[in-house]
Amino acid sequence: MNPTTTTSPYAPLQNDTFLRACLRQATDYTPIWMMRQAGRFLPEYCATRAKAGSFMGLATNTDYATEVTLQPVDRFPIDAAILFSDILTVPDAMGLGLSFAQGEGPRFATPVRDEAAVAKLEVPDMDKLRYVFDAVTSIRKALNGRVPLIGFSGSAWTLACYMVEGAGSDDYRLVKSMMYSRPDLMHRILQINADTIAQYLNAQIEAGAQAVMIFDSWGGVLADGAFQEFSLAYTRRVLSQLHKEYNGARIPSIVFTKGGGLWLDEMEKLDCNALGLDWTVNLTKARALVGGSKALQGNLDPNVLFAKPEQIEAEAIKVLNAFGTPHSGSGTGPTHIFNLGHGISQYTPPEHVGTLVEAVHNHSRKMRSAC
């Protein structure tokens, strides 16, 4: 099925390059979008954030969330928009009391650290996250078919890290202590998280998201063996419950595990369409290993964007050449979605992003024409 075939009430999609690449179909050039592209590196985002008064004031306001999601699409010819939200809206809906202190990052008022706290956890009423779904619908309408909209969630393991630690962590001491000393409690948290994430992503799809992504931001901090048991198994549980099609259109899914290159051969078996790669992964080897069944997304080091424009262009070309010429012609084959190996830094000069997008589009077209 063509990804743009749809009975939805929205405007027809004018640029389906990203969706086609996710589905391993041929494209005229390599599509590009960037993790955290709707964010602090843009002065217009900072202005909207100031109007909103707080991060959650921004995320929970449909108009503001729509505005900041469209800002990078308005500024750069990127090939997909991603919903402006936060992965921690899910545990917040579970009653953990999310707050964002200026300069300190997210915190939970009531972390989950003992048997009693775990016993209280349950899949929340999705109405508590209605503001997210309203934003998805608003953004999809405002995009008016320009590019597809990506919905997202954190992985079950990544959410559990924040829920147990109560905030970000350098050593994951509390969550790993629970994992090793009370694996029964950890599995209970992860089961609830996975089932919540599946409902959450399906609701985003029903609200208008045209692809979904699972961010396993902290999967790479786990030991081999623990990753499979406490992260990968629950990502699989989420994927097994997701809509694969909605309103006549296929809904691609992407899984990104930072630090997950070690387990690519096992991740190939996931029921998703694309795997996101961080900058430590060799794209040539990744394509040889999993390109026969998964599209690959990535994987420029975000700090390249602090270099001079000619160096940014050279590094982008290196990434494209490392993947090689993508599939062309009918049917399916190896495809590449250009992205950073992690989120874009807030200190990135916006004009450098413009250089990157132009370099990716131009060189990827040349690669195809040379075939």
Label this structure with key terms:
371 residues; alpha/beta; TIM Barrel; two-stranded antiparallel ribbon
Question: Short description, anyone?
Answer:
With 371 residues, the protein is an alpha/beta fold. Helices cover 45% and strands 12% of the residues.
Topology:
Elements lengths: L16 H6 L20 H10 L2 H5 L2 H14 L5 E2 L6 H8 L1 E4 L3 E4 L6 H6 L9 H14 L5 E6 L1 H10 L7 H9 L1 H25 L3 E6 L9 H14 L5 E2 L2 E2 L2 E5 L6 H4 L6 E3 L6 H8 L4 E6 L8 H15 L12 E5 L9 H20 L2
Parallel strand pairs: 1-4, 4-5, 5-8, 8-9, 9-10, 10-11
Antiparallel strand pairs: 2-3, 6-7
CATH class category name of the largest domain:
Alpha Beta
Briefly note the CATH topology name of the largest domain.
TIM Barrel
Helix content: 40-55%
Question: Which descriptor suits the 3D outline?
Answer: globular
Nearest-angstrom radius of gyration?
A: 20 Å
Provide structural commentary.
- Helices cover 45% and strands 12% of the residues.
- It has 371 residues and is of the alpha/beta class.
- It has two domains: 35-276, TIM Barrel (Alpha-Beta Barrel), CATH 3.20.20; 288-371, no CATH class.
- A seven-stranded parallel β-sheet has the order 1-4-5-8-9-10-11. A two-stranded antiparallel sheet has the order 2-3. A two-stranded antiparallel sheet has the order 6-7.
- Helix 12 (264-267) links the parallel strand 8 and strand 9 (274-276).
- Helix 2 (43-52) runs antiparallel to helix 4 (62-75), helix 4 packs parallel to helix 7 and helix 14 crosses helix 15 (350-369).
- The radius of gyration is 20 Å and the shape is globular.
- The two termini are 26 Å apart.
- The mean pLDDT is 95.
